[in-house]
Amino acid sequence: MISPQQLFGDLVGRATGEVISVKSLVDVGMLRADPPWVLARAGAAIARYGAIGAALGIAAARFGDRIGVRDERGDLTYAELDRRSNAIANQWRDLGLRPGDGVALLIRNHRGFLESFYAAAKCGARIVLLNTDFAGPQIREVSAREGVDLFVHDEEYSPVLDGLSPRLGRILAWTDVPCDGSLDALIATGSTAAPPRVGQHAKVVILTSGTTGTPKGAQREEPLSLLPLGGLFDKVPFRSGDVVEVCAPMFHALGFAMGMLAVALGDTLVLRRRFDPAAVARSLHENRVDTMIVVPVMLRRIIEEPAAAGAPNLRIVFSSGSALGADLCVRATEVLGPVIYNLYGSTEVAYATIGTPADLARDPGSVGSPCLGTVVRILDDDGREVPAGSTGRIFVRNVMPFSGYSQDDYAQALVDAYRQAGVPASEVRPQSFQLRDILYWLKAAPDFGRQALWLDNRDETDP
After folding, report:
1. What is the β-pairing status of strands 102-106 and 170-172?
2. What is this structure's pTM?
3. Which of 94, 187, 247, 262 is the most exposed place for a label (fewest CB within 10 A)?
């Protein structure tokens, strides 16, 4: 078990990290001296809905007149987004949606994603983000497993959803022409007043890649720490009020996390339903984009566009989702400048390391070093750290609240395994992979930390 000296060291390290995180939040503009009425409104929103559900309302109070989203239909300010999500949430509550109910989103990158997500969060729902590339059978299987009560989707997916009849029905997020049963129809007749307080806060289920079978639902809760933000801001120069082009799909952990971060910072999100490298290259200039969120295959196609070079405001190209690779890193830096940031993590553990432009200049394609508040160890099969240059298994410990796979048959087995290791049941949080992995971890590294997760890219972890 952890010694008193180790525990004391962990506490000191955690406290130091929290202090550094506060400074980082001030530096980027997330924490500032807001007027008392703004602070009061923010506090009331958090009390009603928790941090996830309150985020859009807080952004509306702080940055109400700023453009929150720019998509194919034009611009919406944060105040408009907040009112529209209120109207949807109130309509859904009248329909019978209650805290803890499942709301599935099968939505491309556009305003409807944000409106639906925050409406569901204000209802205290379990929000299930579905991959827009899923086939009908996958959608139905995941929906049944996750207990979906309300299904929100773009109209284009209607043909593959035949036979899917959740308890509260289906709502259209994007339609080519106005119609009943759409978000716009709900907004037109719904009350824009803040919905009532919820009895439990929203949870988000992000699906794994499903490379070895049906995708698993990785449940995430609200972090009780500033380290998840401080770890990012310590590495990447995000700023409040930037223009952020989100190319990565927002159902994916990368696109979702960066979209939510942009809302918290009061940034302008530039979204388009389908990835178009030529349109993105033009947008870098036309919208004076500061930050671009991509997966490597997107980055490769963007830099092939002649218009991509010379973007006047571009400071950050944030890449994750698969290996960046040295060749792509070098070429992207030549075209876009020393602005590439390479994140390594997974759906379960969020982020572990980030390679900065300085790291990539020394070693193109590198994933850099661990973020603030994150510990990474490379261990062999016997739980010993391997020497530099050797291959081993990656262990990551951080404060990201991954609470296990939804409907996980192994949850009770995890509790039992912890009990066998002498950990009190009251301290157990079911968060891991399969039982064989849990037992391996308990045997190989029992002192590493109770929140350690094993990342093994041969399994179902996104690189």
Report:
1. unpaired
2. 0.83
3. 94
